[in-house]
Amino acid sequence: MAARPDLEIIEYRPEPDEYAWTFGGAAPVRRLAPGTVVECWTEDCFAGKVRSTDDLSTVVCEYPHFNPQTGPFWVEGAEPGDTVAVHFVSIEPARDWAASTTVPLFGALTATHLTAMLHEPLPEVVWIWRLDRDARTCRFEARDGSWGVDLPMDPMHGTLGVAPANLEVRSALVPDAFGGNMDTPELRAGVTCYLGVNVPGALLSLGDGHARQGEGETCGVAVECAMDTVFVVDLIKGVPCPWPRLESDTHLMSTGSARPLEDAFRIAQADMVGWVSGEFGLSPLDAYQLISQAVESPIANVVDTNYTSVAKMAKRWLPPRDAMDGTHRRLAAVAEAYRASGRRAAGG
Amino acid sequence: MAARPDLEIIEYRPEPDEYAWTFGGAAPVRRLAPGTVVECWTEDCFAGKVRSTDDLSTVVCEYPHFNPQTGPFWVEGAEPGDTVAVHFVSIEPARDWAASTTVPLFGALTATHLTAMLHEPLPEVVWIWRLDRDARTCRFEARDGSWGVDLPMDPMHGTLGVAPANLEVRSALVPDAFGGNMDTPELRAGVTCYLGVNVPGALLSLGDGHARQGEGETCGVAVECAMDTVFVVDLIKGVPCPWPRLESDTHLMSTGSARPLEDAFRIAQADMVGWVSGEFGLSPLDAYQLISQAVESPIANVVDTNYTSVAKMAKRWLPPRDAMDGTHRRLAAVAEAYRASGRRAAGG
Amino acid sequence: MAARPDLEIIEYRPEPDEYAWTFGGAAPVRRLAPGTVVECWTEDCFAGKVRSTDDLSTVVCEYPHFNPQTGPFWVEGAEPGDTVAVHFVSIEPARDWAASTTVPLFGALTATHLTAMLHEPLPEVVWIWRLDRDARTCRFEARDGSWGVDLPMDPMHGTLGVAPANLEVRSALVPDAFGGNMDTPELRAGVTCYLGVNVPGALLSLGDGHARQGEGETCGVAVECAMDTVFVVDLIKGVPCPWPRLESDTHLMSTGSARPLEDAFRIAQADMVGWVSGEFGLSPLDAYQLISQAVESPIANVVDTNYTSVAKMAKRWLPPRDAMDGTHRRLAAVAEAYRASGRRAAGG
Amino acid sequence: MAARPDLEIIEYRPEPDEYAWTFGGAAPVRRLAPGTVVECWTEDCFAGKVRSTDDLSTVVCEYPHFNPQTGPFWVEGAEPGDTVAVHFVSIEPARDWAASTTVPLFGALTATHLTAMLHEPLPEVVWIWRLDRDARTCRFEARDGSWGVDLPMDPMHGTLGVAPANLEVRSALVPDAFGGNMDTPELRAGVTCYLGVNVPGALLSLGDGHARQGEGETCGVAVECAMDTVFVVDLIKGVPCPWPRLESDTHLMSTGSARPLEDAFRIAQADMVGWVSGEFGLSPLDAYQLISQAVESPIANVVDTNYTSVAKMAKRWLPPRDAMDGTHRRLAAVAEAYRASGRRAAGG
Fold first, then answer.
1. How far is CA D20 from CA A268, D80, D170, D171, D244, in A?
2. Cα–Cα dist C193/C245, whole Å
3. Measured between CA atoms, how close is D211 to chain B, in angstroms?
4. Which superfamily does A9-238+328-340 belong to?
5. What is the structure's pLDDT at B6?
6. What is the CATH class of B9-241+324-341?
7. pLDDT in tens, C245-298
8. How confident is the model at residue A4 (pLDDT cuts 50, 70, 90)?
9. Cβ neighbours of residue D187 closer than 8 Å, sequence gap 6 or more
10. Which of A34, C31, C157, C208 has its CA 20 to 30 A from that of A227?
């Protein structure tokens, strides 16, 4: 079946010299009208250079060429004060393997450049994970000994963002108010991400596909793989979004990225209080109380330049209203139409 | 049906003058042989004094008389270097209401005595939650406006611990290596908690029942209620436990309590690496990698004197071995025998 | 010359079995009337067991027997809500050597039990410092190589406190609102320390003499030595003191002890704003502004269970009033009378 | 007297449309050969718009136009891996007044955008300080009441930096490894600052003059004024500098900028351990011990996007060697020659 005539679809697969390594500071690669479906491909965070257990990232990669982004996309009509919405139709591993590794002086359980100590770095070890895209599994094989196990595949993007405010250009390794390297497993297919616009055109990019990751990304690196990803973009005029928010069919989520981790937690929870009191008619203190008893608070990462915390509220426990101008519902319908068009198999 | 003859069962309901307000420093109220089933009752964190929206905790309660504990129990044979295991058979609200409140200068989204600022405190507001023990729901009613919602009941103990090390006596409001006021929703019926013993007899206490709470306990107070609780106690000789660990039928969990929150996260994750490499045969770096991709990291509290973070690993993703000497399996069997005895309805 | 007849003087030198290892939880060794001069002796933080570079603290010392305190002293008339004042007449090294060491998993530049990591501990190395009490110097000798240098002697007590609030007993290694192991070089002779009283009699102890230390006590251990110390105690009835405050002839100082370090900073600075606006007639915002431009903020320690920060304001930049009921001036006069009595040489 | 013929002197006073608002991302305004003396002028952090107590910064200023920088200067020959040295000959207030203010949701004792809370912001109040450049004083006048006091003038630059690494462009409000808005009172005349070069030409800028500030810059704003500043620039080829270092005639200083504040402390102290062991011949553990007992640790700021901590070691306690290739001594001689030339009065 052909795509429905009213679906605007764009395909984009960057060449290696087209990757963006920053949020802000890169020229747009495509212009997107709100409502457009984008079929794109993203390279892994090692630029595809860690392919075996012999490929140490400190040898085969070179700063600052970590975490290549696909984009930026110019969203037509986007101006500071608006919000861009990105709905993920599908996120599918583009290879049958993925890589993970320890990185010297990076990760939650090691001294780092910011948590500076006198220890020698931990050893650098690479794991290659086998992905079974039919069985939807990621296979871990121990490097010491022969034990292995299949974990469920749960593909996501570690990185999604727009150009920052305040004239800044940030490394694609950074999560902050503009989004970026948030590394939350909640950013999966079926979810809409809201990002406040800081510059004309928003300049949206994404990358850092993970076949799966634990909450906190403890060693600093997930099950990193290239992705075939389909998303729909939309624009909410005149509605700001101070920190990235996510919406699924069942949940609202606010994110905060800061150090120390309690500040990331505070941002996410305070934004959720503001969201619930602003859009659902509860007073701020009633929202504070309800959230205190109902919120899930999955940690995203405790390893990046800023740590990321998520506040997650079930919609069924809130007054029955649409948030963010009903954008998630509208984009989910576009995703459904796209899937019905048969252009790409959803979920693979 | 009568209790099985081999079940040792003790009932204990403290009078108000028998509460313990500290971990350590209180005389034991009962002696428990390992394997004993204890049927007990715990008062809520306000000592039952906040009963209506007019009962401000700053008026009706008086420092240090917050968070009364039931206990301490002397565990026979417990010596420093051993581990006490507590398996929760059931945790059931003892009243059909529960209380929550904002507390001036306490909570995650307010200045506090430790995060000192020049702001006036937030207003003190009380919410009384209605508990429907048959429907298993907790009803929130907004204080401003008429909206209300039923949340699932998910009873748990905010506080469980033993006497601390280093000759200390700690307020029952504190979570630390001895357990205490961890405020994690993971401490529910069906779960075994492991606590390292610091003094002869361990001096185990528990309290701070919550009909439910969100992850992080954002406003500082959960849905606080008195509890009828049944637990089995056991002793693992010669096995230390540096930080409280939890085990359910499906998961292993490590906890860390510290500030800043990333240190609590680090403790829990590092303990899980040590647990998995120590008891399941993976090398430390293989454990680090597997945990990084598989762990859930539910935040417990970001409001107490120490913040608490949990690292949660599904057992099905680990080599098929029993942890902690098979204690959880053994205690779950005792719980099953107890339930079969018909002495108290399980789950209510 | 004999002591003035109106000077009440008490001598106290504890036997090893009389040391206190905690704040709170120890029976008083002496009763002191306000105004009493105490001539005492304190052992070093290793209980005198680290005497050569071969004496590793992990071998010769045993938990919890670190940081022995001299006391507690019962201050007559002290009740919760009062403030005890301790003025140091002299603090003099009692030996001609002092010890320092790295301690595995302790210090600012190493993984610790709270900042948990997967690194091996740093090596344990002991330095013995030679003290020249006439030249007022401490001699550092490198362990690797032959270089050495004389640093100025600047004797101080790392630990001074009263029994905690909330029924607690805390290890002598902990700094908190009750004082304790603050490890600030500002606690030297000529300084008055104010401590809020939490229990009848206050239960004042002191120890942890340092011939000198850097700001932050980076490796976790100062130039540790036994001390001959003379202090005057006083009581300010009906005046609370939420966090330890210090006063010298020239400065007012507030301390905060917490984690993360910014919370310790906030406590100290907010207390100084409260002190200056409460006792010197400035509005809180004027005090905030003046302090922002005038304060010195010497870090005390970044290694203990809580980190300690000091806010230090020159008196000459404040309206000319006496703080804390003129206690410092009054105690300095007692100190002068004591020195005039010739009982002990001041400053040695 | 004319300048010595061998002194290369450049004057530069930016027009308002020439200010840089970022580190990185701005075109160089002048090229400087190593050894050049620059006579420049910097505007205050409010771009000169807060001139009376009626000028609220939230009204008269507009994001992102805070903290204008003079520069960037292209340092000839500078390449990544080199170090640029900036020696301050003089820093003199360019006006007879300076401004300070509280800023809503900014400062150490208030909720902020990163330490998010539910409090209303503190009031916005402006103070205008009178500067007496002959008497070398800054006059504080209370806004509430009539009290005032003269504080010593101690002029400094809050902001000095080079273009960041990793392709980034950072707001001039940010301190980080590239320098930037460190806000340390140690950056005064007579001091040399070392900055690692990240991009060709280094792209050096400076601004944010303070007539004085307290340690920590508690309310977030110092005594802000335009400055007439003279500096000498130099280049140290092939010597990297991972974090900004300072050198005076008497002290070596390392800086760290991060959150939480203990991480800033760790960076500065670990860099000092590396500096002393790398350039002065002590082993790392001997350096750790010596620094632990000798270091001063003045806090710089606890208010900016990153907090800044300084580790300060007296040179007289180190082996008698020149650090950083003798650059400070060499630049101090150039400064002396400049002063001898009579072009501008030193110190005013």
1. 33, 21, 11, 10, 20
2. 6
3. 26
4. Acetamidase/Formamidase-like domains (2.60.120.580)
5. 80
6. mainly beta
7. 999 999 999 999 999 999 999 999 999 999 999 999 999 999 999 999 999 999
8. low
9. D88, D156, D157, D158, D160, D193, D246
10. A34
In terms of CA atoms, which chain B residue is nearest residue C243? B113
Interface check for A348 against chain C (CB to CB < 8 A): the answer is: no
Amino acid at C169: V
Determine whether the interchain pair A218/B291 forms a contact, defined as Cβ–Cβ distance below 8 Å. Answer: yes
Characterize the bridge pairing of strands C307-314 and C245-247. unpaired
Average pLDDT (D294-309) is 98
Chain A environment of C113 (Cβ under 8 Å): none
Q: Is A116 on the interface with C (CB under 8 A)?
A: yes
- Minimum Cα–Cα distance from C213: chain D residue: D293
Band of the pLDDT at A5, cuts 50, 70, 90?
Answer: low
Q: C19 vs chain A: nearest CA distance in angstroms? A: 35
Point out the residue among A116, A119, A260 whose CB comes nearest to the CB of C119. Answer: A119
Among D100, D146, D296, D299, the strongest candidate for a mutation testing the C interface, having the largest count of C CBs within 10 A, is D299
CB C25 to CB B288 under 8 A? no
The pairing of strands D179-180 and D251-258 is unpaired
Q: Is A23 helix (H, G, I), strand (E, B) or coil?
A: strand
pLDDT at B348: 39
Query: What is the per-residue pLDDT across A193-227, written as a single tens digit (0 to 9) for each?
Result: 999 999 999 999 999 999 999 999 999 999 999 99
Cβ within 8 Å, pair D115-A270:
no
Which tens digits make up the pLDDT trace of D22-72? 999 999 999 999 999 999 999 999 999 999 999 999 999 998 999 999 999
Q: Looking at the partner chain, which of C24, C116, C170 has a beta carbon nearest the beta carbon of B266?
A: C116
Domain ranges of chain D: 9-242+319-341
Closest by CA to D262, choosing from C123, A177, C107, is C107
Q: What angle do CA A128, A132, A137 make, to 5 degrees?
A: 85
CB atoms C117 and A116 under 8 Å: no
Q: Does residue C288 belong to the interface with chain D, where contact is any CB pair within 8 Å?
A: yes
Confidence of residue D346 (pLDDT cuts 50, 70, 90): very low
Query: Is residue C197 a contact partner of residue C78, using CB atoms and an 8 Å limit?
Result: yes
| Chain centre to alpha carbon of residue C159 | 4
Among C119, C124, C266, most A C-beta atoms within 10 A, so best to mutate, is: C119
ipTM above 0.85, yes or no: yes
Contact C224, C208 (CB under 8 A): yes
In angstroms, the CA C207 to CA C160 distance is: 7
| Rounded-to-integer distance, Cα B313 and Cα C88, Å | 54
pLDDT > 90 in chain D, percent: 96
Residue D170 backbone dihedrals phi, psi, to 5 degrees: -115, 145
Chain-chain contact of C25 with B21 (C-beta, under 8 angstroms): no
CATH of region D9-242+319-341, choose from 2.70.70.10, 2.70.98.70, 2.60.120.580, 1.10.1840.10: 2.60.120.580
Question: Quick check: A109 and C122 CB within 8 A?
Answer: no
Please compute the mean of the pLDDT values over residues C182-188 and round it to a whole number.
98
Strand-strand pairing, B192-196 and B148-152: unpaired
Q: Is residue D196 pLDDT above 80, yes or no?
A: yes
DSSP H or E run through A329: helix A327-341
Helix (H) or strand (E) holding A10: strand A9-12
> Amino acid identity of C347?
G
Contact B119 D116 (CB under 8 A): no
Which residue on chain B is closest to D263 by alpha carbon? B260
C-alpha to C-alpha distance for B269 and C230, rounded to whole angstroms: 48
Q: What fold characterizes domain C9-341?
A: Jelly Rolls (2.60.120)
